[in-house]
Design brief:
This protein has one domain: Jelly Rolls (Sandwich). The protein has a 4-stranded antiparallel β-sheet with strand order 1-12-4-9, with no helix packed on it. The mean pLDDT is 86. It has strands at residues 2-6, 11-14, 17-19, 21-26, 33-37, 41-42, 45-46, 53-55, 59-64, 70-72, 76-80, 84-90. The protein starts with a strand and ends with a strand. It is mostly beta strands.
């Protein structure tokens, strides 16, 4: 498991790779994080709290390949309005 601090600057949580899952846990008790895929800038749009996929405080989000090792073709990025402690795990 890897610990990452997520702030208002987009940060890469996971690279595309050969794995069964990527799990993102927002360990913060106050602020949501917002996820984006395919980089901090997708189709010319920078990842922000307005256009990311929300993950509320103390909640996880998991991308899985149903137990099969396959290539996740998307990077996973995150941003937040505050400073959040985020935990990442993948296999």
């Amino acid at each position: 498991m890897t610990q990452v601090t997520v702030t208002s600057t987009p940060v890469k949580l996971a690279s595309a790779g050969n794995r069964e899952f990527v799990s993102v846990f927002n360990n913060d008790t106050t602020n949501p994080i917002y996820l984006g895929f395919d980089g901090a800038v997708e189709n010319g749009t920078t990842l922000t709290t307005a256009n990311g996929w929300p993950v509320p405080p103390q909640t996880s989000y998991q991308l899985s390949n149903d137990g099969h090792r396959q290539v996740h073709t998307h990077e996973v990025w995150a941003v937040s309005a505050g400073s959040c402690d985020v935990r990442i795990q993948g296999a």
